[in-house]
Amino acid sequence: MIVGEVSADREAVIRLQVTGSSGQVLNIEAILDTGFTGYLTLPSAIIASLGLPWLSQGQATMANGCLETFDIYAGEVMWDGTALRIATEEADTQPLVGMSLIYGYSLAMDAVDGGSIVLERT
Predict the structure, then answer these.
(1) 101-118 residue pLDDT tens
(2) Which side of the chain, N or C, has fewer Cβ within a 10 Å radius?
(3) pTM, whole model, 2 decimals?
């Protein structure tokens, strides 16, 4: 089970551990984004500090209709007690958790300031 809370900014926030290429662990806060079909986005500064290896480039159509190109890195995240190797997309925003990471989980949320978020395997 993964837990989090709704922030005062009305964002669904969970905490994750991301592991770098040398085994260093970084605790981050990430926003659940059900409109993002990938696994995880991280800002370039975090990707650089973790030394994540580059995999490829990708493209996505943003909410404003613009086509964006971005770099994809090999990442590792602790998810529900299991270390998962995932494609991590570079985006200079707050980290986002997408549907590919959430997939297979039930999401319950109290959509109020400080409300609880619970993700459970289905």
Answers:
(1) 999 999 999 999 999 999
(2) C
(3) 0.93
